[in-house]
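SECTION: protein entry
WANTED: fold as tokens:
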Amino acid sequence: MRHLRQPFATLLCGLAVLFTASTRADTVTVFAAASLKESLEAAAGQFEAASGHKIVISFAASSALARQIEAGAPADLFISADLDWAEYLEKKQLFSPGTRINLLKNGLVLIAPVASTATLKLAPGINFAPIIGERRIAMANPEVVPAGRYGKAALQALGAWESIKGKVAGAENVRAALALVSRGEAPLGIVYRTDALADKGVRIVDTFPANTHPPIVYPAAVMAGSKTPAAKAFLAHLSARETQAVWQRFGFTTAR
């Protein structure tokens, strides 16, 4: 009996370890565009409640996050606000093959403080001077941040960039630009539609025509260096049919 008990006890111990490992809650680290804050937190809450896994999200400009990942930051999942920064990382083979998807779409709007009575029609020949005066228009950094690059492209398409570029308050990300307008520190700003809907301190003056800027697409992918199995499960949740209602509630449209 003594000879039988020892292998049996060892077997039970091994099964217990295997069961614990297979049911262990993972922590998924997500690097995501700042414009996704409320919506992604809501989607993450759903996933956490259903799976028992934990989602930790770092929000910033897509450009800043991509550079951090390139430098070795330990992200499991990256969600960008444009295709360029996703392609930048993919070319460096930093994505897990076959995991990249186009997740969401957004729009671009001109905003003003909620108490402002400013009116403008976003059409060729638009003149911002009567509203801006000696002040500045808030937008994300137009050289590297996706929201800023979309804004610059839209202003160029309308023939307004050359007259306005010297009066741009370039913020580190789109939420920082939104805050400048919400606090009344800038009379106008250019942000995503979803950002404007998230802040009661601003109102939408007009929407940029879709043909004035590249399509605003949010790609997502699991990182090649991720050791967290739940990362792929979370990405699947973000693109699942049952999550579409979350995105729509915050003003996004799905890209698939």
Remarks:
- Residues 2-23 form the longest helix (22 residues).
- The first strand starts at residue 27 and ends at 33.
